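Example 3.2
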Amino acid sequence: MDRQSRPDALAAVLIAWKHRSKIDKVTVSLADAEVTAVSPPTAAGTTVSGAVWLLPEGQSTPGAGAVKVGDFTDVRVVVGSVIELPLSPELNAFVENAFNGSGRFVVYAQGAGAGGAVVNCQLHARLGAAVKWKLI
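Structure, written as tokens:
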């Protein structure tokens, strides 16, 4: 997205947020998570495998109401690496439900490092979606 189109995109997001109670259907077209920090620094480059979940607001671990977005296998954790996540009807329903509530949810990822390595990563999650509005 270039600087010229960014203000229009931000305005569209703000309008959608303000009128989220009028959303009829959400179809997620993109789901990924980018590694933005790794600690300890010596862990950079370690491969990890695990899963990513979306949790209802206030929930800290997967349980009732959570949806598993997908698994990742042998991902090298270096800043800038991206974990592509699969799309599903359950993901669409979760995001739609979140918009009908507070609009907030938690992205939760957990996995194991190769050889038992302990790695902490900060992730930047992205969702892209098409929204269908209710006709009034």
